[in-house]
């Protein structure tokens, strides 16, 4: 069996960006507004068959949010976001969950909308890289999740039957894409994340990553 993890917000704690955004935006919701703007950008690119690197979109979203609030950001401020994205810490439950999976002989894979070089740096800085058998980026197919091509690529790279693959993410749209590709799905309820009780339902869900992977790999 193989477990595929989303990276940003799922494994890495974006709450660490709150101080950066709090120092620049008075609303107190700068990080959330920025991420939703970024998400809209990559969804638009996916729907229109375009592909711009993640960091370029991330900085564009930052400038959009700043413009909405009549704030001018220097290049130094913009570079500061990139630096912080590369040095995000892992959520506290991540290493115990990944260690448990490795102890039980599972293939562990990362699949990110971020760039290939960037995710290697992120996982290494957070102390997570040794746990992963494969680290995959959407750059390989030039489309963002939840485009079907991304999940088809991941299935091919993993080399397992699709019903033996589980995608774990903190975003329901990611899991919807994985489910459409035939994978099982696990939702990790990070702060501020939820699924619609009357909409898409993942196969597994928990607010604790170790408990979630133990649901997936029942031993």
Automatic annotation (TrEMBL):
TM region positions: none
This protein's record includes keyword Hydrolase: yes
EC code(s) of this entry: 3.8.1.2
InterPro entries, sorted: 2-HAD, HAD-like_sf, HAD-SF_hydro_IA, HAD_sf, PGP-like_dom2, S-2-haloacid_dehalogenase
Single GO MF annotation: (S)-2-haloacid dehalogenase activity
Keywords: Hydrolase
UniProt catalytic activity: an (S)-2-haloacid + H2O = a (2R)-2-hydroxycarboxylate + a halide anion + H(+)
This protein's record includes keyword Hydrolase: yes
Function: Catalyzes the hydrolytic dehalogenation of small (S)-2-haloalkanoic acids to yield the corresponding (R)-2-hydroxyalkanoic acids.
Family the UniProt entry places it in: Belongs to the HAD-like hydrolase superfamily. S-2-haloalkanoic acid dehalogenase family.
NCBIfam families: HAD-SF-IA-v2, HAD_type_II
Cited PANTHER family: HALOACID DEHALOGENASE, TYPE II (AFU_ORTHOLOGUE AFUA_2G07750)-RELATED, HYDROLASE, HALOACID DELAHOGENASE-RELATED
Protein name (record): (S)-2-haloacid dehalogenase
């Amino acid at each position: 069996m193989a477990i595929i993890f989303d990276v940003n917000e799922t494994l890495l704690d974006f709450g660490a960006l709150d101080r950066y955004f709090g120092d620049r935006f008075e609303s107190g919701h700068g990080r959330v507004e920025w991420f939703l703007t970024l998400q809209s950008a990559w969804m638009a690119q996916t729907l229109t068959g375009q592909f711009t690197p993640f960091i370029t979109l991330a900085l564009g979203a930052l400038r959009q949010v700043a413009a909405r609030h009549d704030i001018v950001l220097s290049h130094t401020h913009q570079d500061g976001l990139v630096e912080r994205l590369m040095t995000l810490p892992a959520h506290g439950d991540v290493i115990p969950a990944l260690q448990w999976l490795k102890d039980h002989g599972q293939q562990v894979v990362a699949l990110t909308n971020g760039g290939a070089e960037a995710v290697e740096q992120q996982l290494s800085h957070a102390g997570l890289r040794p746990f992963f058998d494969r680290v995959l980026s959407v750059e390989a197919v030039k489309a963002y999740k939840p485009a079907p091509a991304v999940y088809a690529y991941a299935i091919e790279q993993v080399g397992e039957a699709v019903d033996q693959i589980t995608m774990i993410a903190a975003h329901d749209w990611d899991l919807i894409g994985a489910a459409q590709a035939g994978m099982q799905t696990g939702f990790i309820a990070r702060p501020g994340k939820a699924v619609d009780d009357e909409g898409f339902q993942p196969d597994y869900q928990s607010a604790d990553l170790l408990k979630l992977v133990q649901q997936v790999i029942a031993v």
